[in-house]
Amino acid sequence: MTIWVDADACPKVIREVLCRAAQRTGVELVFVANQLLTVPKAPNIRALQVPKGFDVADNEIARRIAPTDLLITGDIPLAAEVLAKGAQALNWRGDAFSKETIAAQLTMRDFMDNLRASGVQTEGPPPLSQGDRQAFARQLDIWLARR
């Protein structure tokens, strides 16, 4: 059982929540990024640096993830890929990705990408709130308790 983190865009506050949970429970926690990350010195927490490039970190996570694992990401296509492998995925706002809703999320993502590509200005996601942080911590605790 491992928690994999798509760490290039992961908010610092979420990394902190994950590290505290890993230190408390002993679950293996791996941050995957194309930049050097500093993580707490603990035998169950590590950073895996991959080469720079499009989807290199995503591909490494998808290659290594197991059905008993959890992915933390904001990347909907990556979430879809790990769900297909039987793993679970959670975004940093505490929303669980599911096999039932991932197709609709991919469709909406593609629609928004097409709008932006055609010159339509769209708003990005709102900043991470205290409520988002709490929702994430709650969903993480639920996942850990099931293990």
UniProtKB/TrEMBL annotation:
It holds the Pfam family DUF188. Belongs to the UPF0178 family. This is UPF0178 protein ABH309_14855. It comes from Chromobacterium piscinae.
